[in-house]
Amino acid sequence: MHIIKVPCSSANIGPGFDVIGLALSMYLELHITTKPTEPPTPTNPLNCTITYTGVGAENIDLDPSANLLTRTALYVLRCHNQRSFPPGTNVHIHNPIPLGRGLGSSGAAVVAGVTLANVCGGLNLPKARLLDFALMVERHPDNVAAALYGGFVGTYLNELNADDMARVEVPLAEVLPQPAGGEDTGLTPPIPPMDIGHFRRFDWSKELKAVAIIPDFEVSTAKARGVLPLQYTRKDMIFNLQRLALLTTVLSDSPPNPDLIYSAMQDKIHQPYRSTLIPGLTEILQSVTPSSHKGLCGICLSGAGPTILALATENFDKIAETIVGRFKQEGITCEWKVLEPAEDGTTVVEVPDS
Ligand SMILES: Nc1ncnc2c1ncn2[C@@H]1O[C@H](COP(=O)(O)OP(=O)(O)OP(=O)(O)O)[C@@H](O)[C@H]1O
Ligand SMILES: N[C@@H](CCO)C(=O)O
What we know:
Elements: E1 2-11, E2 20-33, E3 48-54, H1 68-79, E4 89-95, H2 105-120, H3 127-137, H4 141-149, E5 152-157, H5 162-168, H6 172-175, E6 197-202, E7 209-215, H7 221-226, H8 234-250, H9 258-264, H10 271-274, H11 281-287, E8 296-301, E9 308-312, H12 316-329, E10 334-339, E11 347-350
Bound molecules: adenosine-5'-triphosphate and L-homoserine.
The site of L-homoserine has 13 residues, from α4 and α7.
Organism: Knufia fluminis
Domain GHMP kinase N-terminal: 67-151
GO molecular function: ATP binding; homoserine kinase activity
């Protein structure tokens, strides 16, 4: 049996929209077994069954031709001339990452999918190539790079030549046809160009932990990107760049400097617009400060929201209770967790079948 573990992640960390990612200690886990003697059946042409435990089970499609994770794996397998999983593949998914809450559930599922193909297809692809495949499916690099490599990362997309750009801009429906197990046309799916994206890891201050306050409603990333403007003023871009230049360094300082971190986590290019989707967001971001809460260093929207991420050295329960209380005034209940950076990123281990 193979076990794949992929961490959740928080993207942006304030000003680093589509740039910064932080892998955190909550893990999507896959247990993969195969029965090489089991023949494909007409009802299971992809040789794959999925079982699922964890959050949002009612919303997860267990059909391998429709599930995001196995569709991603089939895309990678098909790029390597494999039309299905090995005989008798069972994928058990255990997922504690809340869906559509800004903790990178889809990024983790996509990274788990490319890793699943790597294991099942015996592809031996290095992580750099797995990142290319993941970026064909989830097209901003912050969550997927953090989930794949772990830790606190800065990411960027390379400027590609015209031919490679055309391959990356293939509509998502052609990368992940729905259903993935439909009519076999014999056509090869779009193979990603090399080196679509890169990342650089930064140090993380050993004193800093991440308090995630997770409201009980979903904001899809697509919707939260839809409320953003297509153009920004020079003033707002300079505001974010000035803070982003400090952010990666101040989050590695030991001991951390709360006032510098709080300033470096301010943003003007996504959070103000997303406040229309998240009741109480603006007030929470402005009122929970290093002066109001001992131990608080910085606060931001996690990914596309609605989760709030507070970076702090102590006093986690008081910080979380204030934010939970503010959401409660809006009629929203929350759960909260203290998370730490997940340094290892995605891991694969092989264990003897029990
Ligand atoms: N383990 C999984 N298996 C199958 N589908 C999943 C899984 N995890 C997430 N998804 C799909 O991804 C969707 C959520 O993705 P979305 O990008 O909207 O939010 P997110 O990734 O949780 O947050 P963010 O991108 O802001 O960090 C879910 O509604 C579901 O369709
Ligand atoms: N950078 C992305 C992360 C969410 O997946 C966004 O904020 O839309």
